[in-house]
Design goal:
Number of strands: 18
Helix content: 40-55%
Largest sheet: 8 strands, mixed
Radius of gyration: 26 Å
Shape: globular
Strand order of the largest sheet: 13-14-12-15-16-11-18-17
Distance between the termini: 60 Å
Length: 622
Protein backbone atom coordinates (compact mmCIF):
# COMPACT_ATOMS: atom_id res chain seq x y z
CA UNK A 1 0.00 0.00 0.00
CA UNK A 2 1.37 3.47 -0.85
CA UNK A 3 2.76 5.43 2.07
CA UNK A 4 0.48 8.06 3.54
CA UNK A 5 1.98 11.53 3.43
CA UNK A 6 2.37 13.44 6.71
CA UNK A 7 -0.66 15.56 7.48
CA UNK A 8 -3.03 13.41 5.44
CA UNK A 9 -6.32 12.53 7.11
CA UNK A 10 -6.33 8.89 8.30
CA UNK A 11 -9.19 8.08 5.90
CA UNK A 12 -7.32 9.27 2.83
CA UNK A 13 -4.14 8.73 0.86
CA UNK A 14 -2.16 11.65 -0.49
CA UNK A 15 -4.06 13.48 -3.18
CA UNK A 16 -7.43 13.00 -1.54
CA UNK A 17 -7.95 9.34 -2.46
CA UNK A 18 -9.96 7.52 0.19
CA UNK A 19 -8.03 4.87 2.10
CA UNK A 20 -8.54 1.20 1.18
CA UNK A 21 -10.45 0.53 4.39
CA UNK A 22 -12.66 3.56 3.80
CA UNK A 23 -13.43 2.44 0.26
CA UNK A 24 -14.64 -0.95 1.48
CA UNK A 25 -16.93 0.51 4.12
CA UNK A 26 -20.60 -0.16 3.43
CA UNK A 27 -20.01 -2.84 0.79
CA UNK A 28 -21.83 -6.12 1.24
CA UNK A 29 -19.74 -9.35 1.12
CA UNK A 30 -20.27 -9.90 -2.60
CA UNK A 31 -19.55 -6.29 -3.52
CA UNK A 32 -16.43 -6.49 -1.37
CA UNK A 33 -15.24 -9.48 -3.40
CA UNK A 34 -15.70 -7.48 -6.60
CA UNK A 35 -13.71 -4.60 -5.10
CA UNK A 36 -10.82 -6.59 -3.66
CA UNK A 37 -10.14 -9.52 -6.03
CA UNK A 38 -8.19 -7.44 -8.51
CA UNK A 39 -6.08 -9.93 -10.47
CA UNK A 40 -7.15 -11.86 -13.53
CA UNK A 41 -10.55 -12.16 -15.19
CA UNK A 42 -13.74 -11.60 -13.20
CA UNK A 43 -17.38 -12.07 -14.19
CA UNK A 44 -19.92 -10.23 -12.04
CA UNK A 45 -23.49 -11.46 -12.49
CA UNK A 46 -25.44 -8.51 -11.14
CA UNK A 47 -29.22 -8.47 -10.84
CA UNK A 48 -31.30 -5.32 -11.17
CA UNK A 49 -30.79 -2.90 -8.27
CA UNK A 50 -27.93 -4.83 -6.68
CA UNK A 51 -25.39 -2.01 -6.67
CA UNK A 52 -23.23 -3.05 -9.62
CA UNK A 53 -22.05 0.48 -10.36
CA UNK A 54 -21.09 0.90 -6.71
CA UNK A 55 -19.19 -2.39 -6.79
CA UNK A 56 -17.15 -1.66 -9.92
CA UNK A 57 -16.35 1.95 -9.04
CA UNK A 58 -15.14 0.80 -5.61
CA UNK A 59 -13.11 -1.90 -7.37
CA UNK A 60 -11.34 0.74 -9.43
CA UNK A 61 -10.89 3.03 -6.42
CA UNK A 62 -9.57 0.20 -4.25
CA UNK A 63 -7.13 -0.78 -6.98
CA UNK A 64 -5.85 2.80 -7.17
CA UNK A 65 -5.72 3.23 -3.38
CA UNK A 66 -3.67 0.03 -2.94
CA UNK A 67 -1.31 0.91 -5.77
CA UNK A 68 -2.46 -1.99 -7.96
CA UNK A 69 -4.02 0.28 -10.59
CA UNK A 70 -2.70 3.45 -12.15
CA UNK A 71 -5.77 5.64 -12.81
CA UNK A 72 -4.99 6.64 -16.39
CA UNK A 73 -4.27 3.03 -17.30
CA UNK A 74 -7.80 1.89 -16.44
CA UNK A 75 -10.46 1.90 -19.16
CA UNK A 76 -14.04 1.52 -17.93
CA UNK A 77 -16.53 0.92 -20.73
CA UNK A 78 -20.26 1.60 -20.61
CA UNK A 79 -23.09 1.81 -23.13
CA UNK A 80 -24.44 5.31 -22.48
CA UNK A 81 -22.87 8.69 -21.85
CA UNK A 82 -25.07 9.02 -18.78
CA UNK A 83 -23.69 5.80 -17.29
CA UNK A 84 -20.13 6.91 -18.03
CA UNK A 85 -20.75 10.23 -16.31
CA UNK A 86 -22.24 8.49 -13.28
CA UNK A 87 -19.13 6.36 -13.02
CA UNK A 88 -16.86 9.41 -13.24
CA UNK A 89 -18.86 11.21 -10.55
CA UNK A 90 -18.70 8.25 -8.18
CA UNK A 91 -14.96 7.84 -8.72
CA UNK A 92 -14.47 11.54 -8.06
CA UNK A 93 -16.40 11.20 -4.79
CA UNK A 94 -13.88 8.52 -3.81
CA UNK A 95 -11.04 10.86 -4.70
CA UNK A 96 -10.07 9.06 -7.90
CA UNK A 97 -9.45 11.08 -11.06
CA UNK A 98 -7.84 10.19 -14.37
CA UNK A 99 -9.76 6.96 -15.03
CA UNK A 100 -11.14 6.82 -18.55
CA UNK A 101 -14.87 5.99 -18.22
CA UNK A 102 -16.34 6.09 -21.70
CA UNK A 103 -18.76 4.43 -24.05
CA UNK A 104 -17.27 2.01 -26.59
CA UNK A 105 -17.86 4.59 -29.32
CA UNK A 106 -16.33 7.48 -27.39
CA UNK A 107 -13.21 5.47 -26.52
CA UNK A 108 -12.82 4.24 -30.09
CA UNK A 109 -13.34 7.69 -31.60
CA UNK A 110 -10.76 9.20 -29.29
CA UNK A 111 -8.18 6.63 -30.35
CA UNK A 112 -9.10 6.73 -34.04
CA UNK A 113 -8.78 10.52 -34.13
CA UNK A 114 -5.42 10.44 -32.37
CA UNK A 115 -3.87 7.71 -34.53
CA UNK A 116 -5.43 8.64 -37.88
CA UNK A 117 -2.52 10.79 -39.19
CA UNK A 118 -0.02 8.02 -38.41
CA UNK A 119 -2.03 4.89 -39.19
CA UNK A 120 -4.11 6.07 -42.16
CA UNK A 121 -3.03 9.52 -43.25
CA UNK A 122 -4.91 12.08 -45.26
CA UNK A 123 -7.95 14.07 -44.21
CA UNK A 124 -9.94 12.37 -41.45
CA UNK A 125 -13.49 11.55 -42.55
CA UNK A 126 -16.58 13.35 -41.31
CA UNK A 127 -18.84 11.39 -38.97
CA UNK A 128 -22.42 10.94 -40.15
CA UNK A 129 -24.86 11.78 -37.36
CA UNK A 130 -27.93 10.31 -39.05
CA UNK A 131 -28.14 7.67 -41.77
CA UNK A 132 -31.58 8.66 -43.06
CA UNK A 133 -30.57 11.09 -45.80
CA UNK A 134 -27.86 8.85 -47.20
CA UNK A 135 -30.11 5.78 -47.14
CA UNK A 136 -32.81 7.75 -48.96
CA UNK A 137 -30.27 8.71 -51.63
CA UNK A 138 -29.07 5.11 -51.93
CA UNK A 139 -32.66 3.89 -52.31
CA UNK A 140 -33.31 6.55 -54.94
CA UNK A 141 -30.29 5.36 -56.92
CA UNK A 142 -31.74 1.87 -56.92
CA UNK A 143 -35.27 3.17 -57.65
CA UNK A 144 -36.60 1.64 -54.44
CA UNK A 145 -39.76 3.14 -52.96
CA UNK A 146 -39.32 4.36 -49.37
CA UNK A 147 -40.96 6.51 -46.76
CA UNK A 148 -39.65 7.82 -43.43
CA UNK A 149 -40.71 4.72 -41.50
CA UNK A 150 -39.13 2.34 -44.01
CA UNK A 151 -35.91 4.38 -44.03
CA UNK A 152 -35.68 4.02 -40.24
CA UNK A 153 -36.15 0.27 -40.58
CA UNK A 154 -33.51 0.06 -43.32
CA UNK A 155 -31.09 2.02 -41.13
CA UNK A 156 -31.67 -0.48 -38.33
CA UNK A 157 -30.92 -3.37 -40.72
CA UNK A 158 -27.67 -1.77 -41.86
CA UNK A 159 -26.62 -1.12 -38.26
CA UNK A 160 -27.38 -4.75 -37.36
CA UNK A 161 -25.30 -5.93 -40.30
CA UNK A 162 -22.33 -3.78 -39.39
CA UNK A 163 -22.21 -4.67 -35.69
CA UNK A 164 -22.25 -8.30 -36.81
CA UNK A 165 -19.32 -7.42 -39.10
CA UNK A 166 -21.19 -8.33 -42.29
CA UNK A 167 -20.51 -6.81 -45.69
CA UNK A 168 -22.84 -6.42 -48.68
CA UNK A 169 -21.38 -9.70 -49.95
CA UNK A 170 -21.79 -11.70 -46.73
CA UNK A 171 -25.10 -10.17 -45.63
CA UNK A 172 -27.53 -12.22 -47.81
CA UNK A 173 -26.59 -15.50 -46.10
CA UNK A 174 -27.73 -14.07 -42.76
CA UNK A 175 -30.95 -12.39 -43.85
CA UNK A 176 -32.98 -15.54 -43.28
CA UNK A 177 -33.00 -14.70 -39.57
CA UNK A 178 -34.30 -11.17 -40.12
CA UNK A 179 -37.78 -9.79 -40.76
CA UNK A 180 -37.00 -7.27 -43.48
CA UNK A 181 -39.12 -4.15 -44.06
CA UNK A 182 -42.17 -4.64 -46.27
CA UNK A 183 -41.40 -5.16 -49.97
CA UNK A 184 -37.63 -5.34 -49.36
CA UNK A 185 -36.06 -8.52 -50.71
CA UNK A 186 -32.74 -9.92 -49.45
CA UNK A 187 -31.21 -9.02 -52.82
CA UNK A 188 -32.41 -5.41 -52.59
CA UNK A 189 -31.23 -5.16 -48.98
CA UNK A 190 -27.71 -6.18 -50.01
CA UNK A 191 -27.78 -3.77 -52.99
CA UNK A 192 -28.96 -0.93 -50.76
CA UNK A 193 -26.20 -1.69 -48.23
CA UNK A 194 -23.60 -1.51 -51.01
CA UNK A 195 -25.02 1.74 -52.40
CA UNK A 196 -25.01 3.27 -48.92
CA UNK A 197 -21.35 2.29 -48.40
CA UNK A 198 -20.44 3.67 -51.85
CA UNK A 199 -22.02 7.03 -51.03
CA UNK A 200 -20.04 7.26 -47.80
CA UNK A 201 -16.80 6.49 -49.62
CA UNK A 202 -17.51 9.10 -52.30
CA UNK A 203 -18.02 11.80 -49.67
CA UNK A 204 -15.34 10.75 -47.16
CA UNK A 205 -17.99 10.09 -44.52
CA UNK A 206 -18.15 7.37 -41.88
CA UNK A 207 -20.97 6.33 -39.56
CA UNK A 208 -20.84 5.37 -35.89
CA UNK A 209 -20.35 1.67 -36.64
CA UNK A 210 -17.41 2.57 -38.90
CA UNK A 211 -15.72 4.22 -35.90
CA UNK A 212 -15.54 0.81 -34.23
CA UNK A 213 -14.70 -1.06 -37.44
CA UNK A 214 -11.87 1.32 -38.35
CA UNK A 215 -10.44 1.28 -34.83
CA UNK A 216 -10.42 -2.53 -34.94
CA UNK A 217 -8.70 -2.39 -38.32
CA UNK A 218 -5.99 -0.01 -37.10
CA UNK A 219 -5.28 -2.08 -33.97
CA UNK A 220 -5.19 -5.37 -35.88
CA UNK A 221 -3.12 -4.09 -38.80
CA UNK A 222 -0.64 -1.76 -37.09
CA UNK A 223 1.41 -3.50 -34.37
CA UNK A 224 3.00 -0.25 -33.19
CA UNK A 225 -0.34 1.44 -32.61
CA UNK A 226 -1.69 -1.67 -30.90
CA UNK A 227 1.34 -1.85 -28.62
CA UNK A 228 0.97 1.82 -27.67
CA UNK A 229 -2.73 1.41 -26.80
CA UNK A 230 -2.07 -1.77 -24.80
CA UNK A 231 0.73 -0.07 -22.92
CA UNK A 232 -1.65 2.74 -22.04
CA UNK A 233 -4.54 0.57 -20.86
CA UNK A 234 -3.73 -2.30 -18.49
CA UNK A 235 -7.05 -2.93 -16.73
CA UNK A 236 -10.53 -3.05 -18.25
CA UNK A 237 -14.02 -2.94 -16.76
CA UNK A 238 -17.09 -3.48 -18.97
CA UNK A 239 -20.56 -2.67 -17.65
CA UNK A 240 -23.79 -4.13 -19.15
CA UNK A 241 -21.74 -6.89 -20.75
CA UNK A 242 -24.89 -8.76 -21.76
CA UNK A 243 -25.44 -6.06 -24.40
CA UNK A 244 -22.12 -6.24 -26.27
CA UNK A 245 -22.25 -6.89 -30.00
CA UNK A 246 -19.78 -9.08 -31.91
CA UNK A 247 -18.10 -5.90 -33.18
CA UNK A 248 -17.70 -4.45 -29.69
CA UNK A 249 -16.31 -7.75 -28.46
CA UNK A 250 -13.77 -7.78 -31.28
CA UNK A 251 -12.71 -4.25 -30.35
CA UNK A 252 -12.38 -5.27 -26.71
CA UNK A 253 -10.24 -8.23 -27.77
CA UNK A 254 -8.02 -5.88 -29.79
CA UNK A 255 -7.57 -3.64 -26.76
CA UNK A 256 -6.76 -6.60 -24.51
CA UNK A 257 -4.30 -8.17 -26.93
CA UNK A 258 -4.52 -11.58 -25.26
CA UNK A 259 -4.35 -10.27 -21.69
CA UNK A 260 -6.95 -11.17 -19.08
CA UNK A 261 -7.07 -8.17 -16.74
CA UNK A 262 -10.76 -7.82 -17.40
CA UNK A 263 -13.83 -7.42 -15.18
CA UNK A 264 -17.23 -7.73 -16.89
CA UNK A 265 -20.58 -7.00 -15.28
CA UNK A 266 -23.94 -8.09 -16.64
CA UNK A 267 -27.25 -9.86 -16.24
CA UNK A 268 -28.50 -12.15 -19.00
CA UNK A 269 -32.06 -11.60 -17.73
CA UNK A 270 -31.78 -7.98 -18.89
CA UNK A 271 -30.80 -8.78 -22.48
CA UNK A 272 -33.39 -6.78 -24.45
CA UNK A 273 -31.48 -5.44 -27.47
CA UNK A 274 -30.95 -8.58 -29.54
CA UNK A 275 -32.61 -6.87 -32.52
CA UNK A 276 -29.68 -4.42 -32.64
CA UNK A 277 -27.05 -7.17 -32.65
CA UNK A 278 -26.44 -7.26 -28.88
CA UNK A 279 -25.98 -10.75 -27.45
CA UNK A 280 -25.57 -12.27 -24.01
CA UNK A 281 -23.46 -15.05 -25.55
CA UNK A 282 -20.19 -13.44 -24.48
CA UNK A 283 -21.39 -13.07 -20.89
CA UNK A 284 -22.72 -16.64 -20.73
CA UNK A 285 -19.51 -18.08 -22.21
CA UNK A 286 -17.09 -15.92 -20.20
CA UNK A 287 -15.94 -18.71 -17.87
CA UNK A 288 -15.33 -21.02 -20.83
CA UNK A 289 -13.15 -18.45 -22.50
CA UNK A 290 -11.36 -17.52 -19.28
CA UNK A 291 -10.91 -20.71 -17.32
CA UNK A 292 -10.57 -20.09 -13.61
CA UNK A 293 -12.22 -16.67 -13.80
CA UNK A 294 -13.63 -15.34 -10.55
CA UNK A 295 -17.44 -15.33 -10.63
CA UNK A 296 -19.41 -13.17 -8.20
CA UNK A 297 -23.21 -13.02 -8.02
CA UNK A 298 -24.87 -9.84 -6.75
CA UNK A 299 -28.41 -10.72 -5.66
CA UNK A 300 -29.12 -8.27 -2.83
CA UNK A 301 -31.60 -5.82 -4.33
CA UNK A 302 -31.27 -2.38 -2.69
CA UNK A 303 -33.67 -0.66 -5.08
CA UNK A 304 -37.05 -2.35 -4.77
CA UNK A 305 -39.43 -3.54 -2.08
CA UNK A 306 -40.02 -7.22 -1.44
CA UNK A 307 -43.32 -7.05 -3.35
CA UNK A 308 -41.63 -5.74 -6.50
CA UNK A 309 -38.71 -8.16 -6.26
CA UNK A 310 -40.96 -11.18 -5.72
CA UNK A 311 -42.99 -10.33 -8.82
CA UNK A 312 -39.81 -9.98 -10.88
CA UNK A 313 -38.47 -13.32 -9.63
CA UNK A 314 -41.78 -15.08 -10.30
CA UNK A 315 -42.00 -13.71 -13.85
CA UNK A 316 -38.63 -15.19 -14.78
CA UNK A 317 -39.23 -18.49 -13.01
CA UNK A 318 -42.47 -18.98 -14.93
CA UNK A 319 -40.64 -19.17 -18.26
CA UNK A 320 -40.85 -22.48 -20.09
CA UNK A 321 -38.67 -23.27 -23.12
CA UNK A 322 -40.39 -23.48 -26.49
CA UNK A 323 -39.67 -26.26 -28.96
CA UNK A 324 -37.60 -23.91 -31.11
CA UNK A 325 -35.75 -22.16 -28.26
CA UNK A 326 -32.00 -21.99 -28.85
CA UNK A 327 -30.21 -24.23 -26.33
CA UNK A 328 -28.26 -22.19 -23.79
CA UNK A 329 -29.88 -18.88 -24.77
CA UNK A 330 -31.79 -18.64 -21.46
CA UNK A 331 -29.54 -18.43 -18.42
CA UNK A 332 -30.75 -19.54 -15.01
CA UNK A 333 -32.08 -16.25 -13.56
CA UNK A 334 -30.55 -14.71 -10.47
CA UNK A 335 -33.04 -14.91 -7.59
CA UNK A 336 -33.02 -11.44 -6.09
CA UNK A 337 -33.51 -10.75 -2.38
CA UNK A 338 -34.95 -7.36 -1.42
CA UNK A 339 -32.99 -5.38 1.16
CA UNK A 340 -35.72 -2.73 1.47
CA UNK A 341 -38.32 -4.80 3.24
CA UNK A 342 -42.04 -4.70 2.64
CA UNK A 343 -44.00 -2.11 0.70
CA UNK A 344 -47.40 -1.67 -0.93
CA UNK A 345 -48.77 -4.53 -3.00
CA UNK A 346 -48.68 -4.14 -6.76
CA UNK A 347 -52.00 -3.28 -8.38
CA UNK A 348 -53.52 -4.82 -11.51
CA UNK A 349 -56.23 -3.00 -13.49
CA UNK A 350 -58.30 -3.97 -16.48
CA UNK A 351 -59.98 -1.16 -18.42
CA UNK A 352 -62.69 -1.07 -21.05
CA UNK A 353 -60.49 0.68 -23.65
CA UNK A 354 -57.20 2.54 -24.11
CA UNK A 355 -58.71 5.94 -23.31
CA UNK A 356 -60.10 4.73 -20.01
CA UNK A 357 -56.80 3.07 -19.21
CA UNK A 358 -54.93 6.34 -19.82
CA UNK A 359 -57.48 8.29 -17.74
CA UNK A 360 -57.20 5.79 -14.88
CA UNK A 361 -53.40 6.01 -14.93
CA UNK A 362 -53.56 9.81 -14.88
CA UNK A 363 -55.95 9.76 -11.89
CA UNK A 364 -53.68 7.38 -9.99
CA UNK A 365 -50.67 9.57 -10.75
CA UNK A 366 -52.53 12.61 -9.45
CA UNK A 367 -53.25 10.72 -6.24
CA UNK A 368 -49.60 9.71 -5.85
CA UNK A 369 -48.52 13.32 -6.22
CA UNK A 370 -51.17 15.01 -4.07
CA UNK A 371 -51.93 12.35 -1.45
CA UNK A 372 -48.72 10.34 -1.16
CA UNK A 373 -46.27 13.16 -1.89
CA UNK A 374 -44.44 11.31 -4.65
CA UNK A 375 -42.63 13.88 -6.86
CA UNK A 376 -43.72 13.84 -10.50
CA UNK A 377 -40.09 13.24 -11.52
CA UNK A 378 -40.20 9.99 -9.53
CA UNK A 379 -43.10 8.56 -11.55
CA UNK A 380 -42.91 6.79 -14.91
CA UNK A 381 -45.38 5.27 -17.34
CA UNK A 382 -43.75 2.57 -19.46
CA UNK A 383 -45.12 0.93 -22.60
CA UNK A 384 -43.99 -1.42 -25.37
CA UNK A 385 -44.37 0.89 -28.39
CA UNK A 386 -44.06 4.65 -28.74
CA UNK A 387 -47.50 4.81 -30.38
CA UNK A 388 -49.08 3.99 -27.02
CA UNK A 389 -48.03 7.31 -25.50
CA UNK A 390 -50.56 9.58 -27.25
CA UNK A 391 -53.56 8.61 -25.11
CA UNK A 392 -51.48 8.86 -21.93
CA UNK A 393 -50.14 12.28 -22.92
CA UNK A 394 -53.69 13.51 -23.47
CA UNK A 395 -54.91 12.14 -20.14
CA UNK A 396 -52.03 13.72 -18.22
CA UNK A 397 -52.63 17.04 -19.95
CA UNK A 398 -56.30 16.95 -18.93
CA UNK A 399 -55.22 16.30 -15.33
CA UNK A 400 -52.75 19.21 -15.49
CA UNK A 401 -49.77 16.91 -14.88
CA UNK A 402 -46.45 17.85 -16.49
CA UNK A 403 -44.62 15.07 -18.31
CA UNK A 404 -41.54 14.44 -20.42
CA UNK A 405 -41.48 12.00 -23.30
CA UNK A 406 -38.19 10.15 -23.22
CA UNK A 407 -36.81 9.51 -26.67
CA UNK A 408 -38.65 12.50 -28.21
CA UNK A 409 -36.83 15.67 -29.28
CA UNK A 410 -33.43 15.58 -27.65
CA UNK A 411 -33.08 18.02 -24.77
CA UNK A 412 -30.06 19.84 -26.17
CA UNK A 413 -31.75 20.32 -29.56
CA UNK A 414 -34.51 22.47 -28.06
CA UNK A 415 -34.36 26.13 -29.04
CA UNK A 416 -34.59 27.48 -25.51
CA UNK A 417 -31.80 25.16 -24.33
CA UNK A 418 -29.47 26.21 -27.15
CA UNK A 419 -30.19 29.87 -26.39
CA UNK A 420 -29.56 29.33 -22.66
CA UNK A 421 -26.23 27.60 -23.26
CA UNK A 422 -25.07 30.38 -25.58
CA UNK A 423 -26.01 32.93 -22.91
CA UNK A 424 -24.22 30.99 -20.15
CA UNK A 425 -21.09 30.51 -22.33
CA UNK A 426 -20.93 34.23 -23.07
CA UNK A 427 -21.41 35.14 -19.41
CA UNK A 428 -18.70 32.68 -18.36
CA UNK A 429 -16.08 34.73 -20.18
CA UNK A 430 -16.42 37.54 -17.66
CA UNK A 431 -18.04 35.96 -14.56
CA UNK A 432 -15.89 34.73 -11.70
CA UNK A 433 -16.77 32.59 -8.70
CA UNK A 434 -20.05 34.36 -8.05
CA UNK A 435 -23.08 32.43 -6.82
CA UNK A 436 -23.49 30.26 -9.93
CA UNK A 437 -27.06 29.07 -9.18
CA UNK A 438 -28.35 32.63 -8.62
CA UNK A 439 -26.34 34.00 -11.57
CA UNK A 440 -27.89 31.31 -13.77
CA UNK A 441 -31.39 32.17 -12.56
CA UNK A 442 -30.82 35.85 -13.31
CA UNK A 443 -29.56 35.05 -16.81
CA UNK A 444 -32.38 32.69 -17.71
CA UNK A 445 -35.05 35.15 -16.61
CA UNK A 446 -34.36 36.84 -19.94
CA UNK A 447 -35.58 33.66 -21.65
CA UNK A 448 -38.71 33.35 -19.53
CA UNK A 449 -37.54 31.43 -16.46
CA UNK A 450 -39.56 32.08 -13.29
CA UNK A 451 -39.48 30.52 -9.84
CA UNK A 452 -42.88 28.89 -10.42
CA UNK A 453 -43.73 27.32 -13.73
CA UNK A 454 -46.94 27.76 -15.76
CA UNK A 455 -49.90 25.91 -14.25
CA UNK A 456 -50.94 24.51 -17.64
CA UNK A 457 -49.38 21.98 -20.00
CA UNK A 458 -48.15 22.76 -23.49
CA UNK A 459 -45.22 24.43 -25.19
CA UNK A 460 -44.77 27.15 -22.57
CA UNK A 461 -44.65 24.60 -19.79
CA UNK A 462 -42.12 22.49 -21.71
CA UNK A 463 -39.95 25.58 -22.25
CA UNK A 464 -40.05 26.37 -18.54
CA UNK A 465 -39.21 22.75 -17.67
CA UNK A 466 -36.14 22.94 -19.91
CA UNK A 467 -34.85 26.11 -18.26
CA UNK A 468 -35.69 24.78 -14.80
CA UNK A 469 -33.62 21.66 -15.54
CA UNK A 470 -30.57 23.87 -16.24
CA UNK A 471 -31.15 25.78 -12.99
CA UNK A 472 -31.40 22.48 -11.09
CA UNK A 473 -28.16 21.35 -12.67
CA UNK A 474 -26.43 24.53 -11.48
CA UNK A 475 -27.82 23.93 -7.98
CA UNK A 476 -26.55 20.34 -7.96
CA UNK A 477 -23.04 21.21 -9.20
CA UNK A 478 -22.79 24.03 -6.63
CA UNK A 479 -23.90 21.71 -3.82
CA UNK A 480 -21.40 19.03 -4.84
CA UNK A 481 -18.56 21.55 -4.89
CA UNK A 482 -19.52 22.89 -1.46
CA UNK A 483 -19.54 19.32 -0.12
CA UNK A 484 -16.00 18.88 -1.47
CA UNK A 485 -14.94 22.08 0.24
CA UNK A 486 -16.52 20.97 3.52
CA UNK A 487 -14.77 17.59 3.37
CA UNK A 488 -11.48 19.39 2.82
CA UNK A 489 -12.15 21.59 5.87
CA UNK A 490 -13.04 18.57 7.98
CA UNK A 491 -9.82 16.87 6.89
CA UNK A 492 -7.73 19.88 7.84
CA UNK A 493 -6.57 20.57 4.29
CA UNK A 494 -4.16 23.46 3.86
CA UNK A 495 -5.92 24.59 0.70
CA UNK A 496 -9.61 24.32 -0.13
CA UNK A 497 -10.98 23.56 -3.61
CA UNK A 498 -12.13 26.71 -5.37
CA UNK A 499 -15.84 27.51 -5.53
CA UNK A 500 -17.81 26.58 -8.62
CA UNK A 501 -17.34 29.06 -11.47
CA UNK A 502 -19.55 29.91 -14.44
CA UNK A 503 -16.73 28.72 -16.67
CA UNK A 504 -16.89 25.26 -15.11
CA UNK A 505 -20.67 25.23 -15.42
CA UNK A 506 -20.48 26.24 -19.09
CA UNK A 507 -17.81 23.59 -19.74
CA UNK A 508 -19.97 20.89 -18.17
CA UNK A 509 -22.95 21.99 -20.25
CA UNK A 510 -20.83 21.81 -23.40
CA UNK A 511 -19.70 18.29 -22.51
CA UNK A 512 -23.25 17.18 -21.81
CA UNK A 513 -24.43 18.71 -25.06
CA UNK A 514 -21.72 16.83 -26.95
CA UNK A 515 -22.69 13.56 -25.24
CA UNK A 516 -26.46 14.28 -25.36
CA UNK A 517 -26.46 13.67 -21.59
CA UNK A 518 -29.64 15.52 -20.62
CA UNK A 519 -30.38 16.60 -17.03
CA UNK A 520 -33.38 15.28 -15.12
CA UNK A 521 -36.65 17.08 -15.90
CA UNK A 522 -39.40 17.78 -13.36
CA UNK A 523 -42.33 15.82 -14.75
CA UNK A 524 -43.75 12.32 -15.13
CA UNK A 525 -41.61 10.28 -17.49
CA UNK A 526 -43.27 8.55 -20.44
CA UNK A 527 -40.97 5.98 -22.02
CA UNK A 528 -40.81 2.77 -23.94
CA UNK A 529 -39.63 -0.24 -21.98
CA UNK A 530 -36.45 -0.31 -24.05
CA UNK A 531 -35.55 3.31 -23.31
CA UNK A 532 -36.22 2.80 -19.57
CA UNK A 533 -33.29 0.41 -19.21
CA UNK A 534 -30.84 1.65 -16.58
CA UNK A 535 -33.33 4.04 -14.97
CA UNK A 536 -35.48 3.79 -11.84
CA UNK A 537 -38.41 5.60 -10.22
CA UNK A 538 -40.39 5.45 -6.98
CA UNK A 539 -43.56 4.61 -8.91
CA UNK A 540 -43.90 2.77 -12.23
CA UNK A 541 -47.03 2.18 -14.31
CA UNK A 542 -46.73 -0.62 -16.86
CA UNK A 543 -49.42 0.16 -19.44
CA UNK A 544 -50.96 -1.68 -22.38
CA UNK A 545 -50.11 -5.19 -21.19
CA UNK A 546 -52.12 -6.93 -23.89
CA UNK A 547 -51.33 -9.86 -26.14
CA UNK A 548 -49.99 -8.39 -29.37
CA UNK A 549 -48.24 -5.61 -27.48
CA UNK A 550 -46.36 -7.62 -24.86
CA UNK A 551 -45.34 -9.95 -26.27
CA UNK A 552 -45.40 -7.89 -29.45
CA UNK A 553 -47.27 -9.48 -32.33
CA UNK A 554 -44.17 -10.08 -34.46
CA UNK A 555 -42.40 -12.04 -31.72
CA UNK A 556 -42.94 -15.57 -33.02
CA UNK A 557 -40.02 -17.78 -32.00
CA UNK A 558 -39.23 -19.03 -28.53
CA UNK A 559 -36.18 -16.79 -28.33
CA UNK A 560 -38.23 -13.73 -29.34
CA UNK A 561 -40.90 -14.49 -26.73
CA UNK A 562 -38.16 -14.91 -24.11
CA UNK A 563 -36.85 -11.45 -24.96
CA UNK A 564 -40.33 -9.98 -24.50
CA UNK A 565 -40.49 -11.63 -21.06
CA UNK A 566 -37.13 -10.08 -20.18
CA UNK A 567 -38.46 -6.71 -21.35
CA UNK A 568 -41.32 -6.91 -18.85
CA UNK A 569 -38.80 -7.96 -16.19
CA UNK A 570 -36.80 -4.82 -16.90
CA UNK A 571 -39.98 -2.77 -16.58
CA UNK A 572 -40.91 -4.31 -13.23
CA UNK A 573 -37.45 -3.81 -11.77
CA UNK A 574 -37.48 -0.07 -12.57
CA UNK A 575 -39.88 0.46 -9.63
CA UNK A 576 -38.65 1.15 -6.13
CA UNK A 577 -41.98 1.06 -4.30
CA UNK A 578 -45.22 1.57 -6.25
CA UNK A 579 -46.00 -0.71 -9.19
CA UNK A 580 -49.16 -0.81 -11.29
CA UNK A 581 -50.01 -3.12 -14.20
CA UNK A 582 -52.85 -2.32 -16.62
CA UNK A 583 -54.41 -3.46 -19.89
CA UNK A 584 -57.63 -2.88 -21.81
CA UNK A 585 -60.31 -5.06 -23.38
CA UNK A 586 -60.75 -2.85 -26.45
CA UNK A 587 -58.54 -0.47 -28.36
CA UNK A 588 -61.23 2.19 -28.84
CA UNK A 589 -64.36 3.26 -26.93
CA UNK A 590 -67.28 1.07 -27.95
CA UNK A 591 -65.01 -1.36 -29.77
CA UNK A 592 -65.18 -5.12 -29.51
CA UNK A 593 -63.91 -6.29 -26.13
CA UNK A 594 -61.85 -9.13 -27.54
CA UNK A 595 -58.36 -8.20 -26.39
CA UNK A 596 -56.59 -10.46 -23.93
CA UNK A 597 -54.20 -9.49 -21.21
CA UNK A 598 -50.56 -10.53 -21.67
CA UNK A 599 -49.75 -14.18 -21.11
CA UNK A 600 -46.87 -13.02 -18.87
CA UNK A 601 -49.37 -11.86 -16.25
CA UNK A 602 -50.72 -15.36 -15.62
CA UNK A 603 -48.05 -16.10 -13.01
CA UNK A 604 -48.02 -12.73 -11.24
CA UNK A 605 -51.53 -11.25 -11.46
CA UNK A 606 -54.62 -12.36 -9.51
CA UNK A 607 -56.87 -14.81 -11.39
CA UNK A 608 -59.09 -13.04 -13.89
CA UNK A 609 -62.62 -13.16 -12.57
CA UNK A 610 -65.62 -10.98 -13.29
CA UNK A 611 -64.32 -7.39 -13.21
CA UNK A 612 -65.28 -5.29 -10.20
CA UNK A 613 -65.46 -1.51 -10.48
CA UNK A 614 -62.85 0.36 -8.48
CA UNK A 615 -63.26 3.68 -6.69
CA UNK A 616 -62.27 5.20 -10.02
CA UNK A 617 -65.29 4.83 -12.30
CA UNK A 618 -62.96 4.65 -15.27
CA UNK A 619 -61.46 1.25 -14.63
CA UNK A 620 -61.84 -2.19 -13.21
CA UNK A 621 -59.66 -3.98 -10.72
CA UNK A 622 -58.60 -7.30 -12.15
Amino acid sequence: MPAVHPGTHPGENAGGIASPDKILEGLDPEQRRVATELSGPMCVLAGAGTGKTRAITHRIAYGVATGRYVPNRVLALTFTARAAEEMRVRLKQLGVGGVQARTFHAAALRQLTYFWPRAVGGTPPTILNHKSQLIAEAANRLRLTTDRAKIRDLAAEIEWAKVNMLTPDTLPARLGERDLPTDVTPQNMARLFRAYEDLKDERNIIDFEDVLLLTVGVLEDDPEVAAEVRKQYRHFVVDEYQDVSPLQQRLLDAWLGGRDELCVVGDASQTIYSFTGATSRFLLNFTRRYEGANVVKLIRDYRSTAQVVNLANTLLQDRRPAKDSTPGSWATPLRLVSQRGSGPSAEFFEYADDEQEAAGIAEDIQDLITKDGVPASEIAVLFRTNGQSAAIEQALTEEGIAYQLRGAEQFFNRGEVKAAIRMISTAAQSAGTDDVPQYTRDLLKQLGYTKQGPSHSGAQRQKWESLAALVSMADRMHAEREQERQRARDNGADELPAGLTMTEFATELARRMSDQDAPVMNGVTLASLHSAKGLEWDAVFLAGLNEGLLPISFAKTGDEIDEERRLLYVGITRARKHLTFSWSRSRTPGGRANRKRSRFLSAIAPPQEKPVKTSSTKGFRA
